[in-house]
Amino acid sequence: MTKQALKTIIAAILLFSVVDYGIFLPVKALAATSSVRLSSLSPDSEDGFHTYYGYDNDEKFTDVYGKAVNDGIGLQGSSPYATYNVSGKGYSSFQGKVTLDSREVNGDYGKSVVGFYADDRLLYEKSLSKSSGVVNVNLKLPKNAKNFFIVVKELEGSKGKHFIVIQDGTFVKGGSYLSVPYSSYISLLTIGESKSHYYETTGSYSSLQDISGNLITNGFSLSTPYNEGGLGYSTFSIEGNGYNTLETSISLDARYVNGDWGKSVVGIYADDYLLYEKEFTSKTAVQKVKVSIPKGTQHLTLLVNQTDGAKGTQAVTFSQPVVSKTGSSYTSVPYTALPSTIGTKASNGAWETNLYDFGGMIRFSNGTLGSSGLIFESNTDNGDAYTTYNLSDAGVNYFKAKLALDSAYLQGDYGSSTIQLLADNRVLYSKALTRSTGIVNVGVQIPSKTQEFKIVVKQKEGAKGYHNVVLGNAVFQKLPVSAKLSPSRVSVANNYNQNDVVTVKSLAKGDVIKVYNTKGALLATSKPVTSNYTKVAIKQLGTAKGNILVSRTTSGVLESDSVSVPYAAEPVPSPSVAAKQVTIENNKNKNDLITVKSLSKNDVIKVYNSKGSLIATSKPVASNYTKISIKQLGTGKGNVLISRISTSKIESTKTSVAYKAE
To answer: Whole-structure pTM over 0.70, yes or no?
Structure first.
């Protein structure tokens, strides 16, 4: 054998070793993986679960094309499912295929949907039909998952229900896990409602669906009675769990959109604070909603207010409603209380729709709906509509709402309406309402120490009755208040014959100062401060001494309480000098001389030229006259202006006195 032949044989052996075993290749070793067949495991809980097709337990499943499935499980029923405990098993993913058994696809077998869950987290959801074929599924699992769920919902057709097949299902160990951003994650259905009304869940009803007709694997529905409408709600207690996010998909149920099914508005509340509100129509697509949960929230309430139509009422579905804690930040909101939380002291012709009670549909002048609020309608026998609230220990300082007339009471003669908001009988807000008023955002600051807050609607009846006046989303709140001014920062100049001036020092940029009289009437408002002080001009405070009230409003917060600041009476002008009291000597080649007689001791005389420029000022008078020497008035004739300043008085008006030529 030649050396060249030997080299060729050795090279071939080495090449075979590398190709067959890879032992000489400098490659990174792959992570070891293993798998467990789903069909080899028994579910920890199940319903409608099958290991064979049919009742004899001897027929294999098929896929939708009729091909036999050698490894699979089956699910059939209204709400079949299978649960597998995966805690501590090291499963990183689930792989397999989803199909329908070919023997139950031709004809009307209704609707089907399958969902795969890791605990409460939806990993994958798919509506199934004959045309969906065989669907490949490859799902990563969160590292700390405890249970794996396969959930099916079916709506029966005229020939029965589909038979769902999970083919070649496998749990894989050793791969990468699903990365999740949250530290806690739970379905509202797992939490369970603490209070509800007209509430149906997928745990009891398999037919809930979105507006496209897709069945929902986990969620709930709110719908009010057929010929009534009204309020449906569900409240969930989340106190102490630190959740900061709520997510869900909201839709009208497709079964109740074609034709007149009335109207629906959805509201989501954190305690009494409105997080989300939207009216849903037959043209509204599925709404994916994600809202921040304020810190300290005790209850989440999801509700719907509905009017009924000729065919009944709509149903609103909430798919995959979950709360989670992501990160450590929270949304901060002011303390907010619905009127019902404060509690009504007395009322007449007033109704409230809140989280749990339906007082009437909150309907604005443009026909849109609100999820909570107040409704007012006068009664011929009982007088004005009103409601009062005791705020002595309520801890609130602000009231806000969306004001409008109800659109159902606009066409025709419904008389006239005026609304007033009062704090201890002091009017904070007043507005006459007409057909063209529209929707007005009303917000009033409630003075500190207010005992009673009252809402009054004064109405005159028209030929068709009274308006309905609506305050939608009406709430009381506690908002931050600007720091109260110290009286020492405020000075008042009560001027004679010119604007009075209020000066306020030690302010922040953007502060706004308001000045009121002692009865609370606004006298003046400053522009936002650009330095550290402001001067506010007021046309006339009055001639006598008195007090004003001064407040500060810092940018972004409410107006402070006012501070009372005294001011002195206007200064009294000195008596003017009569022309006959004055003699003028316009001398030649020596100083001119002005003599003023009939003066009082300590009077001071000022002399001005005819243009108002000061020429001379006397010393305080020692007797009853003074002589003022002026270097030169001029050679020609002319006039000077003479004024007097008496003790404790301001300068008098000027008197014009003529003088002759030199």
So the answer is: yes
